Amino acid sequence: xxxxIDVTTPVQPELEEELQKLGFVRPSGPxxxxxxxxxxxxxxGFEVVGESPMGDTPDMVRLQLxxxxxxxxxxxxxxxxxxxxxxxxxxxxxxxxxxxxQARELHALAGTLDHDxxxxxIRTETIGEYGVEALG
Length: 136
Description:
It is built from 4 helices and 5 strands, in the order βαββββααα. By secondary structure, the protein is of the alpha+beta class. The chain has a 3-stranded mixed beta sheet with strand order 1-3-2, covered by helices on one side. A two-stranded antiparallel sheet has the order 4-5. The chain is globular and about 45 Å long.
């Protein structure tokens, strides 16, 4: 559904330095406009999109902690409701029509959702233009 993984961090220069050490590069040249980092061998990409998740609009207690290495600090991952709301906000902006379908697919695949929270987040991201009913 996406071409890269969006990351937020208050230490962007340090993160980008570590990505370079791991072999990630910034694509350049015609047709390669990106703000992100891609690993040329595996095609995995990361883009730093800010210092905090979605401008601190998600409920922070809904962020999921993931520990890929128990000896290292964990990662915080957005809730599925916030991912859906983000796509709805992009759709409502009029610049990314395909995001409605992505939001609907995430909604269909999600399983258990907090629909009250989801509706509130969609309305926030779309400035009241849409709610959960737009997901079909």
